[in-house]
């Protein structure tokens, strides 16, 4: 199985509070490249980026208020192509389980993820950023057809 990513990507931008400035500086440096794609972001991050970049960003809820789950749903429904998530490894977040689930979904659906500026730079300089890309998808049909435990209900 594979999924085709179009030349114009659908990119989610997320940052924990202590990483918002770092993401903002990265986005300013990559503004022209970002203009070529459709951008999504969790609430506060999206508001900051939209104001600074002067570019329309589809804003979801704040991460801890459900924005992380909204992005997860978009990944599972194949409505996102790339996740740029500057997360703070030095500070526990009240929504850490949501963050872990988001990263798990990204791995499950073979979605490119950048967790820092260096990785985001590598992604954005790839020739695949502006061309079609065929992402191999794991076939989960065996998992979906597995025998479920018997219940008394």
TrEMBL record:
Organism, as annotated: Niabella soli DSM 19437
Annotated protein name in UniProt: Methylglyoxal synthase
GO BP field: methylglyoxal biosynthetic process
Coiled coil: none
Sorted UniProt keywords: Lyase
Catalytic activity as recorded in UniProt: dihydroxyacetone phosphate = methylglyoxal + phosphate
CDD domains: MGS
Residue ranges annotated for the MGS-like domain, each copy included: 3-153
Family according to the record: Belongs to the methylglyoxal synthase family.
SUPFAM superfamilies with a match to the protein in the record: Methylglyoxal synthase-like (SSF52335)
EC identifiers of the protein: 4.2.3.3
Binding site for substrate: 16, 20, 42-45, 62-63, 95
Gene Ontology, cellular component aspect: cytosol
Gene name linked to the record: mgsA
InterPro entries: Methylgl_synth, Methylglyoxal_synth_AS, MGS-like_dom, MGS-like_dom_sf
């Amino acid at each position: 199985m594979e999924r085709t990513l179009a030349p114009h990507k659908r990119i989610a931008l997320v940052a924990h509070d202590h990483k918002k400035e770092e993401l903002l500086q990265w986005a300013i440096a990559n503004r022209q490249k970002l203009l070529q794609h459709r951008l999504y972001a969790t609430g506060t991050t999206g508001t900051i980026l939209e104001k600074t970049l002067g570019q329309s960003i589809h804003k979801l809820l704040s991460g801890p208020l459900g924005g992380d789950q909204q992005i997860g749903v978009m990944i599972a429904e194949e409505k996102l192509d790339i996740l740029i998530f500057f997360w703070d490894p030095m500070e526990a977040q009240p929504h850490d389980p949501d963050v872990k689930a988001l990263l798990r979904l990204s791995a499950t659906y073979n979605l490119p993820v950048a967790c820092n500026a260096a990785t985001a730079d590598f992604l954005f300089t790839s020739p695949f950023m502006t061309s079609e890309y065929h992402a191999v998808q794991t076939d989960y049909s065996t998992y979906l057809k597995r025998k479920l435990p018997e219940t008394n209900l």
